[in-house]
Amino acid sequence: MVLHYTKKTFHLAETMGSKVNAILRGARILTSIASGNTTLTAVSNHTGFSVSTTHRLLKSLETTGFISQDPWSRQYGLGPLVSTLALIPGVAHQGLISSARDDMERVRALTKETVALVIRMGLQRVQLVELPSPHALKYTAGAGFAAPLYYGATGKVLLSQHSEDEVALLLKRAPLVKLTAQTVANPDELASQIAKVRVEGYALSRSEMFDGTVSLSVPIKNYYMPVAMSVLAPENRFVTDLTLWLRPLKESAYSISKKLKKMGTHLWPKQ
User: Fold this and answer.
1) Gap between the Cα atoms of 210 and 42, Å rounded
2) Looking at the 3D structure of the chain, how many domains does it have?
3) What is the pTM of this model?
4) Engineered SS bond to 114: which of 32, 55, 133, 246, CB 3.0-4.6 Å?
């Protein structure tokens, strides 16, 4: 994982207070180490900081757990705190969650159904946030719910954000198993459906993961990994006119994508 910051971002340190200056310098040190500069001299040369300043910042970052130093080679690497934060989806993707929440609330208010924000993590999809339907009977799994990447509308939308070659490789690694009678477990058929989603910009599935459920999903762009926003509902309550849900869902996804772009893709870690 490599963090990318623009020169403009670091130039802000010159015009802001000393505390912000220290934070930005620390971020630059972390970026340098993540880019492969693992010695004091290499980090100093890469950042442009003096050796003494670099050493002081390295010690501070080491004390707080952001970096660690191998006692034998004396080389630096990203520390346990970075790994811990990265493994907590709600923490690692807080910017995405904050950008999406208002629009998710709007979609839930319009549809009166559960709305979920989902990302791809390896061969699974993980639900970052879920806003449950106000109805007593609802389709809900909860934040943190993980499921195979390949099933249902949400999975297809996440996969549609990859190239055809990447999809073929992911499907080759996947042990496709039918969860219900409607599950698409044939890799060729699934690839064809994903290609259609890529063109149409949405996916709809019925009872592919759980019987009696419907999922309508759209992609969110301008993030460093695939993201989907989905409306989840019992099948008997699904609207017959798809545009009643699809239009506000697409509009909200576009709004979130604009916010993420404004935040700056240079702020996201690059896979």
Assistant:
1) 53
2) 2
3) 0.68
4) 133
